[in-house]
């Protein structure tokens, strides 16, 4: 189980509370868009095509975090990370509160609401800063436990928060936005209370050179390159697999009256139940080994959806949706923790930004593949397309298998305390991350 000492660390408890602000920005964006629709369709705010403006705003909120991922990574590596998190939380609080306040004062305009929606979408990029700051808060010997807590906590808190927001919203999303603004302000206050010493940033060499250094380090370091490929391939084939499962199980969903939203909710529960043993297993078998074993074992369960028209079709369908999602939650925690350990502190932001950009581009490409899934299903049928998607996902484990010998722990690893950096050779044997950048 998770070490009790982790919950006795004041810094970590403040960090968990402060992370609630980043969760709020993800789940409150729909309320901002609801306000935008109201502004576009009611009274003096009527303007042009609702669909086109909403689409451009939504696209901006999705694309800008990718475009700014690398510069944000440089910023995180240049300044104190706690300051970045506090500033972004305060900015989000002011922006969210400005929408209902402006509406009540009668001065709200659709460009204002649209701009807030775009910026709130951009603030989702604060996950890079959270990931870069966590090793300073808890040390590098407790990262798997800490990341597990940070993954499980939203699964526990957010379902209740979403139900509460539905009741608060009523005819207007204003109360939800105000509550989210308060959450972000409290998050900033909690993060401000963390006083873990941070390593000084290195000398600045210009934005372009620092961007290139972060990308080069991520793509040339053998383990980080394998982690990038392992994260990109599932994002590329996710839409294809889901489209094939929906088409395969469509008749069974109607016949068995399966709620399509149930597997997603059950997937959260399964991830919650499965993630906790990760803390027990990672020290016994190794973090990277845990990742590639899970990446090999769980994706083939998606093939069980082809049995959805049998007597036990509802059960097979739910397993086909739940197990792969739970598996990739484990993989994500394991790979994030390993990346945080092997990356020098001065490059954590840029490495995270590079991976965020690569995964985002893979998701965009995956959306295009998902759009092609319909014609392919009509030509090939759902099972061959599903098998192709699962095969592509299984390929994600291959890069990790090829570098597994680099992740063998040293005979006597040195545990690091919060605020310090464990030597990389204590974690991954003979691989020296700094050597890749020289």
From TrEMBL:
Region entry Disordered, spans: 409-438
Regions of biased composition (Low complexity) lie at 413-424
Q: How does it sit in the membrane?
A: Multi-pass membrane protein
Coiled coil: which residue ranges?
none
Query: Where does it live in the cell?
Result: Cell membrane
Q: Which domain of life does the UniProt lineage start with?
A: Bacteria
**Keyword Cell membrane attached:** yes
| Name recorded for this polypeptide | MFS transporter
The record lists the organism as Streptosporangium lutulentum
């Amino acid at each position: 189980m998770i070490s009790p000492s982790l919950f006795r660390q004041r810094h970590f408890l403040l960090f968990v509370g402060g992370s609630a602000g980043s969760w709020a920005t993800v789940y409150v964006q729909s309320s901002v868009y609801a306000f935008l629709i109201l502004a576009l369709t009611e009274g003096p705010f009527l303007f042009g095509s609702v669909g086109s403006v909403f689409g451009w705003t939504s696209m901006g909120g999705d694309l800008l975090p990718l475009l700014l991922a690398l510069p944000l990574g440089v910023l995180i590596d240049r300044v104190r990370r706690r300051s970045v998190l506090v500033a972004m939380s305060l900015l989000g609080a002011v922006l969210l509160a400005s929408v209902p306040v402006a509406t009540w004062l009668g001065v709200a305009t659709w460009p204002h609401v649209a701009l807030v929606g775009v910026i709130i979408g951009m603030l989702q990029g604060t996950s890079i800063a959270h990931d870069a700051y966590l090793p300073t808060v808890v040390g590098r010997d407790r990262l798997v436990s800490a990341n597990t807590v940070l993954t499980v906590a939203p699964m526990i808190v957010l379902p209740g928060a979403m139900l509460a927001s539905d009741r608060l919203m009523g005819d207007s999303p204003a109360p939800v936005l105000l509550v989210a603004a308060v959450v972000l302000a409290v998050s900033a206050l909690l993060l401000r209370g963390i006083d873990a010493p941070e390593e000084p940033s290195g000398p600045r060499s210009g934005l372009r050179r620092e961007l290139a250094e972060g990308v080069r380090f991520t793509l040339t370091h053998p383990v980080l390159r394998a982690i990038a490929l392992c994260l990109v391939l599932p994002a590329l084939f996710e839409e294809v697999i889901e489209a094939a499962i929906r088409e395969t199980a469509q008749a069974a969903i109607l016949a068995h009256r399966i709620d399509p939203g149930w597997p997603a909710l059950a997937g959260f529960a399964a991830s919650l139940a499965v993630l906790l043993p990760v803390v027990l297993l990672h020290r016994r078998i190794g973090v990277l080994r845990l990742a590639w074993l899970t990446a090999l074992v769980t994706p083939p369960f998606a093939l069980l959806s082809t049995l959805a028209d049998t007597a036990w079709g509802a059960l097979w369908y739910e397993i086909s949706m739940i197990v792969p999602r739970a598996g990739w939650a484990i993989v994500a925690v394991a790979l994030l923790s390993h990346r945080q350990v092997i990356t020098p502190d001065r490059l954590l932001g840029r490495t995270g930004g590079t991976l965020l950009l690569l995964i985002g581009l893979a998701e965009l490409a995956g959306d295009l593949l998902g759009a092609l899934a319909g014609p392919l299903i009509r030509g090939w049928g759902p099972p061959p397309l599903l098998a192709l998607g699962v095969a592509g996902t299984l390929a994600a484990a291959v890069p990790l298998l090829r570098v597994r010998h680099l992740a063998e722990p040293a005979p006597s690893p040195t545990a690091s305390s919060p605020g310090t950096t464990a030597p990389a050779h204590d974690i991954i044997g003979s691989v020296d991350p700094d050597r890749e950048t020289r």
